[in-house]
Amino acid sequence: MKTEDESNERPRKYRVNGITFYYRNGKLCAMPSTREKTKKTPTEKQIESREALEIATDCAINFFRTNGILCIAWDAYAKLFRKNRLDIFKMINYPVLDAKLLGVDYFPDFFFCKGKLVPPRETRVNREDLLLFPTWEHPDREYGLSNPDDLLMMGYFYESRPDIPLLVMTDVTRGERFAQIQLPDLGYPSTETLHLYLFFCSPDWTTFSDSRYVKA
């Protein structure tokens, strides 16, 4: 019979052919061995991809700080896909969000808003410095998605600040087909190029349209 000292000399745990042997209450037990996870150094492409996703998230968070109405709009659209507004915003706008600019690098493909209402049609904008005159067409067929009482909204970027989204809310209705919008003077040159995004929302602010891009 082995003494207590001799028993203590036995290894507590050892591995043989993928099986781990160990002693419990003086009895030899066995279980399949699990390999220790090794940390792999991420590749340069993986690092770039992670950084791009982080930038996209930062851009999305910055965008939704612009105005609470944008949170409502994208929340409504995200519900159609059972997603949250950050994820759906990144899914739609990721191709035009630039890590170096921390903003939009191709304005025509950016969506300020997404929704199921009929968007502005045949949109045009005349400009006199910071005074804008947008026009649009109102479709004859409504089907509940193109109400004459829908309200006009306009998001925009200055050419030099693709990282700063701005928003103007108006009381102009879809049925008017014309608006006059005076932009606030934020210190940019009055002749600097503007990238505009016109869209509609229902009077109760629950339903929105896709935005339509116009360069001014």
From TrEMBL:
Protein name: Uncharacterized protein
The species this protein was found in: Butyricimonas hominis
